[in-house]
Amino acid sequence: MKFGKRLKKQVEESLPGWRDKFLSYKRLKVLVRLVSGSSPHRAVAEAAFVRLLNDEVDRFNAFFLEQEEEFIIRHREVRETVKAVADEEPSEAEPVVQMRKMRREIVDLHGEMVLLLNYSAVNYTGLAKILKKYDKRTGRLLRLPFIEEVLKQPFYTTELMSRLVRECEETMEAVFASDNSGDPWTRKRCTDTELTPMATEQGILRNTVAALVAMRELRSGSSTYGHFSLPPLEMETTLSEHVSIPVADLVQSEARGVVPVV
Asked: What InterPro entries does the record point to (predicted)?
């Protein structure tokens, strides 16, 4: 699949509030054509291309940092809630409601953080591809110095987010564990009834599956894999171990294009 179509698919499958935050790939392609053509406005188009690239990176950084800060706060609140519920004395009805609410919050948070990692990967890949087109059509060498600067940008620096995802998965493992300990938040596995509001109201679960598929494709080795490609995906999601929906099956189905994304 060509990157332009893949990007369009990613935008459509993203959260509604995120859809105008992705790379303006079409605008950049138009400017590349103008720069590489015989137009008398080539110099103007070239300046506009570089300016738009810089503006896009600034936009990615602002959005990524805003989301990262929000996720740090939510992650801390979730962990505090889990600890508070675990320390409470078991009762009949209230813990069930608390567990259900807590599970929704954890899965939603995990899904949104995975989507942010995917946001970083998709936009980095888009920058690398449009710069490759620019260099090929103009004979210039803009990609290497520009990407070297991109690698230092906040939106590409995902170590903190990756760590938060792993910690969130550890929390999920504890919360969704099924044992006989008697703890109010470990007494029973998440059911389809509990999961349904998460999947239908926000579509985060299916969007996360789509993001994981895209990240795997973007980071997989291929005939076009090169110096500017993202490294292979190493992050392992444990979501399928903690909820009753077979997420691994959803990933495979989405990869085959048979799962509609909410």
From this structure: SPX_dom (IPR004331), SPX_prot (IPR031142)
